[in-house]
């Protein structure tokens, strides 16, 4: 029974991964690299398992892409500070936990990346709306639920799956592909 489940899950993951347009991944890679080279900030946002994925991105980019003399990435996960997230959720609104922080930190040409399965989270929608308004570059990587994030982000990568595990796995696969590519590029330039 487990073997059948494993085979089905593995098949779903591979199918969803193969359905991603390589040009979209290239566009996201270019956006991250442009922000990196220009010293812009990169904010990565998510809820639940996607928040954990966002923290993983921060680790892999802020540490993993570096070589001894390379520039340093400025990537932040806005769900990592539980004090501010809980204060904003309790005192203002959970829908504003990200947009409020962006009002403190984001500037024109910064990059906002939202990770979501449904693409329907009000706090992510609010963050992208704010980012668009002030001239940030906005990306979303979302599941195949026709969520509003896909429509309002300047760029959206739709993972062709409604399985939260598959979508979150792909959040991390994309992270690993881009961060390792950038690490290799930094090593070659240092070479």
Q: What's the SSE blueprint?
A:
Blueprint: H1 2-18, H2 22-38, E1 42-45, H3 49-62, E2 75-77, H4 82-91, H5 99-105, E3 111-116, H6 122-134, E4 137-143, H7 148-152, E5 155-159, H8 164-190
Parallel strand pairs: 1-2, 1-3, 3-4, 4-5
Structural commentary:
The protein is of the alpha/beta class and 191 residues long. The protein has one domain: 3-Layer(aba) Sandwich (Rossmann fold). Helix content is 58%, strand content 13%. Helix 6 links the parallel strand 3 and strand 4. Helix 3 packs parallel to helix 8 and helix 5 runs parallel beside helix 6. It starts with a helix and ends with a helix. The mean pLDDT is 97.
Q: Give the rounded overall mean pLDDT.
A: 97
Q: Strand-residue fraction?
A: 5-15%
- Helix segment tally: 8
- The fourth-level CATH homologous superfamily is Glucose-6-phosphate isomerase like protein, domain 1
Structural class: alpha/beta
Order of helices and strands: HHEHEHHEHEHEH
Query: Main sheet?
Result: 5 strands, parallel
Instruction: Give the helix proportion (percent range).
Output: 55-70%
CATH level-two architecture: 3-Layer(aba) Sandwich
């Amino acid at each position: 029974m487990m073997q059948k489940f494993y085979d089905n899950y593995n098949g779903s993951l591979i199918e969803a991964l193969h359905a991603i347009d390589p040009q979209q991944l290239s566009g996201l890679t270019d956006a991250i690299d442009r922000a990196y080279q220009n010293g812009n900030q990169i904010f990565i946002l998510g809820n639940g398992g996607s928040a954990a994925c966002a923290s993983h991105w921060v680790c892999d980019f802020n540490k993993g892409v570096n070589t001894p003399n390379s520039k340093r990435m400025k990537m932040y996960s806005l769900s990592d500070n539980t004090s501010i997230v809980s204060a904003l959720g309790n005192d203002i609104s959970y829908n504003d936990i990200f947009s409020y922080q962006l009002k403190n930190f984001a500037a024109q040409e910064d990059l906002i990346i939202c990770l979501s399965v449904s693409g329907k989270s009000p706090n992510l929608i609010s963050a992208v709306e704010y980012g668009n308004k002030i001239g940030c570059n906005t990306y979303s990587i979302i599941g195949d639920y026709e969520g509003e994030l896909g429509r309002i982000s300047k760029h959206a990568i739709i993972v062709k799956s409604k399985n939260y595990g598959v979508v979150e796995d792909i959040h991390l696969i994309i992270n690993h592909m881009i961060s390792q590519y950038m690490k290799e590029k930094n090593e070659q330039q240092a070479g």
